[in-house]
Amino acid sequence: MAKVKKLDEIQTFEWVGIDKIGKKLKGEQKAKSTTLAKNELRRQGIQVKKIYKKRKSLFSNGKAIKAQDISLFSRQLATMMESGVPMVQAFEIIEGGQSNPRMAQLLNSVKTEIQSGSSLAESLGKHPVYFDELYCNLVNAGEKAGVLDELLDTIATYKEKTEEIKGKIKKAMFYPAAVLFVAIGVTILLLVKVVPQFQDMFTSFGADLPGLTLMVVSASKTMQEYWFIGVAIFVGFIVGFIQLKKRSLKFAHFLDRLSLKIPIVGGILFNAAVARFSRTLSTMFAAGVPLVEGLDTVSGAVGNVVFRDAVLKIKDDVSTGHQLQLAMSQTGLFPHMVVQMASIGEESGNLDAMLAKVADYYEQEVSNAVDALSSLLEPIIMVLVGGLVGVMVVAMYLPIFKMASVF
Asked: What are the boundaries of the signal sequence (predicted)?
């Protein structure tokens, strides 16, 4: 078995040289060795005077490769192939324009596989972390049908829309989490630093303290004496939760089912799953992938175990001869409008177009719901945070007001 070349073999060289008319030039060249770098520069008509390996900084490994990077790459490759640029040359051009070394190394590895005789789908499939089964299946369909540039453009659009929905949902979750985190931090700071100052003053009063003040003082003492236990429990809970979700399939499935039942948020996640189902199946069907095979891939792309199980059931029903709309209706999961649009698409022969319209509708629904949720949460969270801090402030000043009324 041939040894797969590692991504980290690619190096960056800085060089100084002159071109054919004697003009002095300098720049950078990516290659696996000094010799290969010189050969490439010589091919470009540059006579190398100095060349040396670029020094690596602490951050030279680059940022992690994100879904947006893969989407942009798909769009660039589609444009170049539509313009008639050979695939290997297209990879070289895209690689040369990368500011992230990791992405450049990934593209170089894929290019090397293509040069060794592998198809694009096979080359991408060797990097499943970045190119999933759906991506590779669509590329494979495009290569077989001779419409790879169109399929790559479709993939780019699909990934852009999918990431846009994910970004909306993350935004809806991040804002309240961040505000609550700040509120908890401020509360702890008040309990540990501010309340003890008042506590010394209250002791000198020699009078009975109000119940609210006693409660806050008691919480402050507990926080000062046992804060490390609280931190340990909190960290342990977070780590345990993450590990349990990774290692226990039943727990992960339980969370997926539970997430759809959460008020307001559950509706957003449900609509997002319907949008992913519609968008993915539309993309697969438009690419010429058989419906049963497409449904199998879609089941892994919906992002929720409830929808995954439903799609697998649909696949089984369709494979035995049932219409898609009937199989969808039998699950009892999909809204009536989605089933009707699928029915119209099957009857008219435009299933991909109908499903794309469904995806557009539900993506817009998710976007509107997230914006509404953000607008709703902002005043609620501010009231909660203000109330929490206000209660503590009142608790601290109640004894002072009580003493003032006595005198």
From this structure: none
Query: pTM for this structure?
Result: 0.66
Residue in the structure block whose two tokens are 């926080």: 223
Say if residue 155 is in the same domain as residue 180: no
Expressed as residue numbers, the domain containing 317 is 176-406
Label residue 361 by pLDDT band (50, 70, 90): very high
Consecutive H or E run containing 319? helix 305-319
Structure token digits, residue 147: 């419409």
3-class DSSP assignment, residue 249: helix
Same domain, 95 and 204: no
Cα four-point dihedral sign 311, 317, 323, 327:
negative
Instruction: Answer yes or no: is 77 within a domain.
Output: yes
Q: What is the CATH number of the domain that holds 339?
A: 1.20.81.30
Residue 293: other Cβ atoms inside 10 A: 14
CA dihedral 164, 168, 171, 176 (to 10 degrees): -170
- Residue 403, pLDDT score: 65
Cβ(168)–Cβ(276) below 8 Å = no
pLDDT tens digits along 362-377: 988 888 888 887 777 7
Q: Cα–Cα distance between 142 and 146 in angstroms, integer?
A: 6
Question: What are 111-153's pLDDT values in tens digits?
Answer: 988 888 888 989 998 888 888 878 888 888 888 878 888 888 8
In a domain, 228, yes or no: yes
Sheet holding 11-18, edge to edge: 24-31, 11-18, 47-53
For residue 6, being part of any structural domain is answered with no
Specify whether 149 is located in the same domain as 180.
Answer: no
